[in-house]
Write a structure and sequence with these properties.
heterodimer, A: MetI-like fold, B: 325 residues, mainly alpha, MetI-like fold, globular
Chain lengths: 315, 325
């Protein structure tokens, strides 16, 4: 299993030369000069701003407050109509951005922290502790996560966002850990790590300052992937009624839409906008990851191929 | 064969871990698990049956090791307890019905999305920057970012409710004789499967496609591919017999990770389409606070996923001669 564990992502990032072309801005600068990643980052920035300025964009004391008649179609007063309970969908959408993004980014960050610790440790220390950590990683990886999360949430009555973060994080770190482990294995045998060891650097220094910086793009893409997974899974759990339906998130708006037969009553404004928002955030994250992939593996870039062809055609 | 043997041992360990998690979950929750899990059986079953149900989940007097032994012993006999939602049917019977539907739906959808993803991935890598590479790749990527359940809702809204092309849910018409020898019934089953299967395919194909494309691009720059072309082999031969066969290997290994996501997607798709598979059963169990059925669903889904992974490993052996030795 281990020899085949190198996915496309880990196979790509051993090439370290992009660091030269990244210039002074580092990974971030390289990302923003990649068109796909720049679009993705733009969309994410937009939603982060919406989340921060929610009280300015849609001033309200409580987004769950009843402000209109049930299932009003979009109008000037309610730009995205109202729900069955007469709540303003636009207001809910704006405020829902907060919890949705917060849960997504917090979970993604906890997941990547666990993945980095377990992945690099098991890649760097060989022997039986690696065997045990890899076994643990592979077992967690192969046990289907969503059913397990659903069953756990079924036993906890109406878990809040923080509980969802904890449950999600404790089950979803395995993919990242495995990718990072195989990359650590490759880097461990390189000359600069050997040199650091010979000069007597302590292990934690080697891991933090020699190995980790060489996996920046891999860690970044695993982090983005974890955030995407968290956003989608959170929405899914809330949609099937396993979250706290009184906390406004994009997932709970969809839960209420489904429970109030929004499909049957043609109240499209209650279920199209939150889904579009989730999909936009998801798509933005996917775009950023395409960008990271293209930066760390120049072969995957399409722009260059097209330019070459154009140049040939011009001759 | 040693490879497959090692994998089998690994899956047994994974199964054992899943069983242990199942045993632990009720015991980690706050409150009295016995009260929580079995209160709703009181008055519906005679005390002796309730007593034997306790044993099934290991709630016997004694230390936790003894409880665990009782739980394992019952599990090995295939005893998963009694369902509350479908009282008095045993959990295993309820699960059997659901599993059959899920395997049909998910089997068809996975097979189609995998083949389609492989085929399109090969095309995208072979003709860089052309139609498949420039348009199909980003569009399937967009679908992959959609929440599964939302795509299912939109499909249901557009194709079943607005256009009325497909049924609103369930696995077959109720007014047809439920008999597999009845061609009308088979047609009805296929007809009901189209919309949920398309949803799963749309969300799953992007991952296979992108993985195959990237891996194929790397393989295409290998020397042996250049040699094959220099020998004057046909494009077809180079593409499929030389490059694709090797480029597929990471996708097969990635099957383990992908299957978890696909199963998750299938669960919510079943919920939206009221498709009577295991995912729908799981949700019914949650809503009915049917704890024995919930635990049974988790175990069964895990076993199915492990089994599918083992099949993927067997496929790996066929494709890669290096692991055969």
């Amino acid at each position: 299993m281990d020899n085949a564990a190198t996915s496309s992502a880990s196979a790509s990032s051993t090439r370290r030369f992009p660091r030269l072309s990244w210039g002074r801005l580092g990974l971030l600068g390289a990302l923003l000069s990649n068109r796909k990643a720049a679009i993705g980052a733009g969309i994410i920035t937009f939603f982060v701003l919406v989340a921060i300025f929610a009280p300015v964009i849609a001033p309200t004391k409580d987004p769950n407050r009843m402000v209109g008649r049930p299932h009003e179609a979009p109008s000037l007063e309610h730009p995205l109509g109202t729900t069955r309970q007469g709540q303003d969908v636009f207001t809910q959408l704006v405020w829902g951005t907060r919890v949705t993004l917060l849960v997504g980014f917090v979970t993604g960050s906890v997941v990547i922290l666990i993945a980095v610790i377990i992945g690099i440790t098991s890649g760097y220390v060989s022997g039986w502790s690696d065997e045990i950590l890899s076994l643990l990683t592979n077992v967690v990886l192969v046990i289907p996560a969503l059913p397990l999360i659903i069953v756990i949430s079924g036993f906890i009555d109406r878990p809040g966002p923080m509980t969802i973060v904890l449950v999600l994080a404790s089950i979803s770190w395995a993919y990242g850990a495995r990718v990072l482990r195989s990359q650590t294995l490759t880097i461990r045998h390189s000359d600069f790590v050997a040199a650091a060891r010979v000069t007597g650097e302590p292990t934690w220094r080697i891991v933090l300052f020699e190995i980790l910086p060489n996996m920046t793009s891999l860690v970044a893409s695993a982090w983005i992937g974890a955030v995407l997974y968290a956003v989608l899974t959170e929405a899914t759990l809330e949609f099937i009624g396993l979250g706290n339906p009184n906390i406004v998130t994009w997932g709970t708006i969809l839960y209420w839409a489904q429970n109030n037969a929004a499909l049957m009553t043609n109240a499209w404004w209650t279920f199209i906008p939150p889904g579009v928002c989730i999909a936009l955030v998801g798509f933005a994250l996917v775009l950023i990851n395409y960008g990271i992939d293209e930066i760390s593996n120049p072969r995957l870039r399409t722009d260059r191929v097209q330019k070459k062809k154009k140049a040939k055609a011009a001759v | 064969m040693r490879f497959l043997g090692r994998r089998a041992v690994f899956y047994l360990i994974a199964l054992f871990v899943a069983i242990t998690i199942n045993f632990m979950i009720p015991r980690l929750m706050s409150g009295d698990p016995v009260q929580m899990m079995f209160a709703r059986f009181q008055g519906r079953m005679d005390p002796a049956s309730v007593e034997s149900l306790y044993k099934t989940f290991g709630f016997v007097d004694g230390p936790i090791t003894e409880q665990y032994a009782s739980y394992l012993a019952n599990l090995l006999q295939g005893n998963l307890g009694t369902s509350i939602a479908w009282f008095p049917a045993p959990v295993s019977q309820v699960l059997g019905v659901g599993l059959a539907w899920t395997i049909r739906l998910l089997g068809v959808a996975t097979l189609i999305s995998f083949s389609l993803g492989m085929f399109l991935g090969i095309r995208a890598a072979w003709k860089r920057g052309r139609f498949v590479d420039a348009f199909v790749v980003p569009i399937t990527g967009l679908f992959g970012a959609f929440p599964y359940f939302w795509l299912a809702m939109i499909m249901l809204y557009v194709f079943a409710l607005k256009l009325d092309w497909f049924p609103l849910g369930h696995a077959a018409s109720l007014d047809i004789n439920q008999d597999w020898t009845n061609p009308q019934y088979v047609l009805s089953v296929i007809y009901h499967m189209i919309l949920p299967a398309t949803t799963i395919i749309l969300t799953a194909v992007g991952g296979w496609l992108l993985g195959m494309r990237n891996s194929m691009i790397n393989v295409l720059s290998a020397d042996y591919v250049a040699l094959a072309q220099a020998k004057g082999l046909s494009d077809r031969r180079v593409k499929y017999a030389y490059a694709a066969r090797n480029a597929m290997l990471p996708s097969i290994t990635g099957f383990a990770m992908s299957l978890g996501f696909i199963v998750g997607g299938a669960i919510v798709t079943e919920v939206v389409f009221s498709y009577p598979g295991i995912g729908y059963t799981l949700l019914t169990a949650i809503n009915a606070r049917d704890y024995p059925l919930m635990q049974g669903c988790f175990l069964l889904i895990t076993m199915a996923v492990l089994g599918a992974n083992f099949l993927a490993d067997a496929a790996y052996v066929v494709l890669d001669p290096r692991v055969r030795s």
